[in-house]
Design brief:
The complex is a heterodimer of chains A (254) and B (54). By secondary structure, chain A is mainly alpha-helical. Helices cover 74% and strands 0% of the residues of chain A. The longest helix of chain A is centred in the N-terminal third of the chain and has 33 residues, at 19-51. Chain A is globular and about 60 Å long. Chain B has one helix and no strands. Chain B has one helix at 4-43. Classes of the chains: A mainly alpha (254), B mainly alpha (54). The interface between A and B is medium-sized, with 39 and 29 residues.
Chain lengths: 254, 54
Amino acid sequence: MSSAAPHPLVLWFHKLGSPPTFDRFAARWAPWGYLIGLALLGAGLWQALFVVPADYQQGDSFRILYIHVPAAWMSLFVFGLMAFYAAIALIWRIKLCEILAMACAPIGAAFTLITLATGSIWGKPMWGTWWDWDPRLTTELILLFLYLGVMGLYNAIDDRRAAARAAGLLAIVGVVLLPIIRYSVVWWNSLHQGQTIRLFGESSMDASMMAPLWLMVLATKFWFVGSLLTRARADNLRREAGKDWVARLAEPRA
Amino acid sequence: MNYLPYVIGAYAVFAAVLLWDFVVPRLQIRRQLRQARQRAARRAPAAPTGDLSR
C-alpha cells in the first residue's frame, strides 16, 4: 500500500479552505485584481471613447457596445462560475466554495444590471424604444431576477450553511437559462442583433474596432477577481464572527 | 460626438455600478471588524479604577 504525499496544489487548496488563511490570501490579492482591472479599464475606455472611429451607421452610439458586450459576457460567465462553485459546495461540502458561490451573485447581478441599462440606453436612439419584450432582453432580465433570487434566498435563512445550500441549488437549476440567452437570437426572431463578435472565427466587426473590446473584456475579468475576493472575505468574516483570529485581526494596531 | 447624452448616460451607469461594487464589500469588512472590536471590548474585564463602589 503506497502513501503518496498529496500534490502541492491540492495541499495549497486545503490550506486555503482554512478561514484565516483565506482571509490573508483575499486581503493580499484582491487589490491586485482591482488595480490590474482599473489599468486595463482606463486603457480600454480611452481607446473606446477617443481612438476608434465612429461607426458609419450608428455614429458614436456604438461606443456603448464597449461596456455593454463585456458586461453581458460577464453576466453569463459569473452565473456559470457561481453554479460551478455551488455544485462543488453541495457535493463535497466545501465551505470556501459556498462562500465563493454566494459572493458571485451580487457581482453577476451588477454586470447584468449594466447590460440591461446600457442596452436600453443604446436601444432608444437605435431602435426608437427603451425596452422591448424581445427574447434576448427578456431572458437577460430573467437572469437578473435569478441573481436577485439567489441573493435573497441566501440572506433570508439565518443558518449560513443551509442558506448557501438552498441558494446554490437555485444557481445550479438556473444554469439552464444560459444557453437559452446565448441562442435566443438564433432560435427566435429577435430585434436584438445576432452574434457580431466571435472568439473563434471572423467577427463581423471591423478589426480596427476590436482592441478596446478585448481590453474591456480582460478588465472586467480582473475587476471580478478583486471584487470576488473582497466579497468572499466579507462573508468569511461574518461567518467567523466571534472567533479568536477575527478578534486578533480587528485589534487596533499600535 | 453625436448621441453624446446616450454615451454619457451609459458610461455613467457603468461607473456608478462598479463604484457600488467596490464600496459595499469594503463597508461590510469594516463593519465586521468594528463589531469584532466591540465584542472584544465587552469581553475584556473592566480595569480597576481604585475607587470603592458604593
